[in-house]
Amino acid sequence: MLVAAGVFPHPPVLVPGVAGQRSADLDGTRANCELALNRLFDADPELVVVLGGDDRTACHGSDVTGTLAPYGQATTFGDGSARLPLSLTIGRWLLESHLDRAACEFHSVAWNATPAECFRLGERIADRATQVALLVLGDGSACRTERSPGFLEPDAIAYDDHIAEALRGGDTTALAALRPETAERLLVAGRPAWQVLAGAASERSPVGELLDYSAPYGVGYFVASWRFAGSSPRSGRAERDRAEALTE
Fold first, then answer.
1. Taking the domain 2-245, which CATH number applies?
2. Domain limits of the chain?
3. Are 156 and 141 in contact (CB under 8 A)?
4. What are the pLDDT digits (tens) for 173-213?
5. CA 29 – CA 216 distance, rounded (Å)
């Protein structure tokens, strides 16, 4: 059962050594990431599942390695046999000082996974242990300004605003309804991971708090904390039906 979740961005510059002289730009975001991590562990999870996008869907235990060498810093995290994609490498970096607090697994979800596939994966992850916490890595649109990596798309900011409100409100229905084609057009890396979160939380009652929403480099970054009030599950059928309808 999902007992807590945190949502984080995954740009390489979140790591101060990669950011260099620009490191101060994300000091506030880093502080809010640490706050979200502490809230996640305050729920006393048995298992923390780190989730982020990649070319394929896969699951790894704690025997993993992440490297920032392609981004100008010869730093690795872990010494395992499985090489992590960027999203999960940033997740591994975030966990560096928390590794002794719970067992960890690392799940990637394919960029092209359908909403229904993401939703079902989330349901399965929520059943991995009695108390599961989900550490979700995902960036918003990279098309917010003319200087963004993907140049300017007029509806990019409105899209990110919609995501911010869904994360603020613990709105699993809004996340489950995200359309892959829109996310692809707006270069939104977080869409699959957020929809896995929607599936994992669908039988619970999320209490969301948006801790950070910024775009210092023309890409939307979110930090959010989801907790769960009470122990009475609510039906996730509406969200599941919505996710499945988007693939038809």
1. 3.40.830.10
2. 2-245
3. yes
4. 999 999 999 999 999 999 999 999 999 999 888 999 999 99
5. 10
